[in-house]
Amino acid sequence: MSDMNGQSGSLTSPLYSAAKERRLSSPVVRFPRVITLRAGRRLSVMETEFLERGPVGSVVVGYDIARRFSAIDPSRADVPRMPLYLNRGLRAFQQHMAANDVQGAEAALTRAKALVDGFAPVFSHGDLNTTNFDDDGCVWDWDNAGLRPYGYDAAFCCRERGYDGGEDLLAFSAQAVEREGRAREDRLAFVFFTLCFWHAAPLQRGKKGFASAIYQTLLMCLKGLDASPL
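Now predict its structure.
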């Protein structure tokens, strides 16, 4: 990963917009450069360069960053596989389904989790919310970075996005998340993680019927994988 050069110009000028688009289409991620690192037995101290924070990050920039993370080769460094900590979200969703007399949800969620866990992991930030990056694509707070299934960062960031229903969720996945040649598995993973984060997404949790729509969409993704095995 390497730093991306900034571009001068007004935040509303065509020059700035064009420069930002070039950065967002770049395969690299901008982050503070480490100057010194002193590691002790109980405490480590890191000094990094100061980067002036740009405009507050948007969800659009966030899922673009998530896609760029997936292009990073983790074999170039000792990157650990990180736990997903999904039990709280899955439990909340199962309770919601049970309260609405939906049968078989636990089995479907268990199967989806097992499939997603088996997908090849990619580099992941782990806490990609709009307070941890700016609209110029600079990313902070790397404490949770590691390997996770693709789709985790995008779904985590998109907790701040609302959907009109299952079809809107699938359309967004096709447009912004799915990679060429991996659409079915990427779709399943993104829908599954969206479901897991539903309890912490006010715009989604507050929309009547959306939990049921996510669940039905998840079942469709599972059937899609059955029809075309990985």
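The first strand starts at residue 34 and ends at 39.
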